[in-house]
């Protein structure tokens, strides 16, 4: 069975789960997973794993992401995007000047505290937050720490602002739009959202579902593409067999106190290991035997 990652261009109007369903049909396999859910209305990069590569999806959760987003001034909604019910609207407001926008953007750079939108998949009281909201229950979303690494003003016309954002995992663009509007003292909501990057998966390399149907396995990327952001360790020849058999390897020197490593042998990806500097020991976490043959 084919194994590897696909860089899928998710279209708007389709859920991430729907994309997985389409990939299952195209590749005739049930073992498919995805990394980094995109809201149905959003488009862009959605890494999808096939076969044993699905075992590596968890390591993508820590990767940074990039977006192109549209911010709409003058109204806010219950969902935080333009698909929701308008809860505040002002028609008479002074549009900020470019210099004011740039100055306000600076306040959102770095480590910030952000309150996720009520309409989100975060679990509260054993239920998804959006389920509680739909039941008209009062929902108090806890603050969470996120990092916004870059904000670039792309376009500004009337009440529409287009930005590029680089951010950490867990960052909600809808919350950013809401909070940015509050900083300008103007209600705001998110318009379109395009995810342009997830870790090492970029928009310019992404395949639409139609292109995947034509390309088939030619579109598959190696499984280790998903973990290229993690440190690499090349296993000595005489230690390879022990590692792929699930045995820890001692007397290992690596410049880290403790780290999750991608492990190679004979320049082939063997799997993932956990290094403990105090013991100079490397412990196998996930081994890909088929790649070590």
UniProtKB/TrEMBL annotation:
Lineage: Bacteria, Bacillati, Bacillota, Negativicutes, Selenomonadales
NCBIfam families on file: TruB
Protein name: tRNA pseudouridine synthase B
Protein task: Responsible for synthesis of pseudouridine from uracil-55 in the psi GC loop of transfer RNAs.
EC number: 5.4.99.25
Gene3D superfamilies the record matches: Pseudouridine synthase
SUPFAM superfamilies assigned to the protein according to its UniProt record, in alphabetical order: Pseudouridine synthase
Keywords: Isomerase, tRNA processing
Example GO BP: mRNA pseudouridine synthesis
Reaction(s) catalysed (UniProt annotation): uridine(55) in tRNA = pseudouridine(55) in tRNA
Top-level division of the source organism's lineage: Bacteria
Residue span(s) of domain tRNA pseudouridylate synthase B C-terminal: 174-214
Family membership noted in the UniProt record: Belongs to the pseudouridine synthase TruB family. Type 1 subfamily.
The keyword tRNA processing appears for this protein: yes
Matching HAMAP family: TruB_bact
Pseudouridine synthase II N-terminal domain ranges (all copies): 24-173
Gene: truB
Residues forming the catalytic site: 39 (nucleophile)
GO molecular function per UniProt: RNA binding; tRNA pseudouridine(55) synthase activity
